[in-house]
Amino acid sequence: MIEAGIKHDQEKVQKRRAKLGRFILATNDLELTPDQLLEYYKEQGTVERGFRFLKDKSFRVSEVYLKKESRIEALAMVMVLCLLLYSIAEWKLRTRLEEAKEAIRNQVKKKTQTPTMKWVFFLFRRITELVIEIDGKRIKKVLNLDEENIKVLKLMGEKYEKYYM
Hints:
Structural class: mainly alpha
Largest sheet: 2 strands, antiparallel
Strand order of the largest sheet: 1-2
């Protein structure tokens, strides 16, 4: 039989803590509490991810040749508005997935409740609308709508469903 005990050496703990790293958060907003400041700092990653999304090659921003400052500002505004809509849609879908205790498959076929909208858009890439006119009557049909797409649409709500179903 082996017996062991634990001895708490407060002096050694204090020495180790003294060597731990620290960082400084500074602000000119004197109304913020330290906890609020830390929370805002932690949320900074979300903003950074958003700008990384805007710089993604799929946006092809590097291929836009604008010279006038007003046009560059207008393009930047449109891109930030797109990012806002993208973020709202992503938040809404993730919230609905969590509330419904549902998940969709990710790139490696594992279930996730935190998909990116970029992935969701990829899932919708094959969906097309077929319009046929026979004897003056127009018939519309949505093609390639699978179970995963339907789940996403139902979670997002009727306004989204009406365009596809």
